[in-house]
Amino acid sequence: MCRTGDLRQAVLARNDAGAQALREELAARGTVVVNMLSSPGSGKTELLQQELTLARTRAVPVAAITADLATDNDATRLARAGVPVLQVLTDGLCHLEAAMVRRAIDGWLPAETRVLFVENVGNLVCPASYDLGETLRVALASVTEGEDKPLKYPNAFGLAQLVLVTKADLADAVGFDEAAFRAHVERVNPGVEVVLTSARTGAGAGVLLDRALAAQQGTPQHRPVMARTQDPALTHHHHHDDGHTHDDGHHHDDGHQDGHGHDGHAHAEHGHAGHGHGGGSQHRQDAPTPVRPLPGHPSR
Amino acid sequence: MHEMSIALAVIEQVAEKAPPGATAECVRLRVGELAGVVPDALSFCFDLACAGTPLSGSRLLVEPVTALARCEPCAREWHPGMPPDLCCPGCGSGTDVVLLSGRELEVSAVHWSGDPACAAVPEER
User: Residues A119, A89: contact at Cβ < 8 Å?
Assistant: First the structure.
């Protein structure tokens, strides 16, 4: 047999379909996902802890997933905000995929949750390619990282719907050129909002939560040029591939699942708000996932 | 480096479409300049990940796709380059700019066992 098959198919179609299904399911119950991308050490966790705390004081039901290659450290920090937090360990994988988010939230995410913040693996390259079912994608960069970060990582910043600058209190000390940073963002993502924040001084506090709640209310979000492509079947972000079923974890071939065999695992954290959720529900394909509750509520 | 994940996704998709008993000789992949994928790394991962699948021993032919942007009001088209400049070089605005190409990451064709068309394709890496 000798034949050529035309197979015009987006490589990430399965992830995109799973993400779209997740987005729709969550929307039906009034929940939106916020996908947060940054390099390691940019201050994602600190900023997120502040926003989660603010949400709790305002009685807005929120939850957070934090992804790392190893350690529960970020979940421990975020849990101080007193909201449901789940640590996803990717076991070395450099990014999250939609199926991993789905596995993480199944049976864990409280029904009343309005906003689920997903702190992606600290990495500005790989996570940019994966739609997680988010309604709002946020890219963060700290003032210490240099003004040209958006040019060096055009996909991360080019596909963002909100750009947050962190550690703004250090801007003078490190000679951060805000105008240059803004110009670089504008070049790769014209029209996207850029907000300076400092978890230390409180500058910009609440902006992330406000934008997330606006998204939850259905406010139209910024559509980056890089997401405005001509062929919907080939768009990686927020489009649905119609030629595909998405089985989200029930697919098998050669041992690969949707997460390509990197299922990761989850540890649940409970803040003192005590929503009484029974821990993480993720399972590895081959064995039950150990879910160990972490010690109480460390004080700062 | 997520090229291994991409390679696995390519292999999974192609293997699903494999005619009974066929083995793939080469897989053509269109990779846009703005797709966020490094073709060399992808080829490397593809070779490793093919083992034990219907694609074992097949070649990955990467066709790079240059990015092209268009400003609708100006009816102007340009290559945004890398890093991309997605503001219109005419009016300076990005409000009504669309990408005509550059984000592709798609399997365009698969050549199954013994296909002469495959041998005629020059290797691009």
Answer: no
